[in-house]
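pinned: reference chain
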Amino acid sequence: MDTQGDTTMKIRPYQPSDEDAVIELWSQASKLAHPFLAGEGEGDREAKMRDVYLVNADNWVAETDDQVVGLLGLLGAEIGGLFVSPRAQRLGIGRLLVEHATTLHPAVTLEVYALNGSARRFYEIMGFEETGRYTDAETDHVLIQLRLTT
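pinned: its structure tokens
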């Protein structure tokens, strides 16, 4: 992805016409971030993404050169999902999506798998603070609860 020249990034509300692009980036990003979850990014988890999260969350997309490269899903002030296409990671898109969430809510929360070291480092750099931990009954993996107050 070109990050020089006329490349522009914008955040806009998710539209149903974004579904295929969003599912593709979510699937790729999820498989990369969660290799410890069997079936991640496909099957039942994809169906839940399409039928529950894209329908019920307040979703925002990051778009570069008319291509969807990021997804922010908000459940109230909770970041239910933050995904950036693997080809667009480390370009500041995740940061901009979190900053967008904080323009909508003065404090945001989220959960991240303890085994997702890359995301944990990202959230630490962003200033999130740990508020708790528990073992997810569905996956049997530890989730860390985080909060960011602006």
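why pinned: DSSP finds four helices and seven strands in the chain. The longest helix spans residues 19-33.
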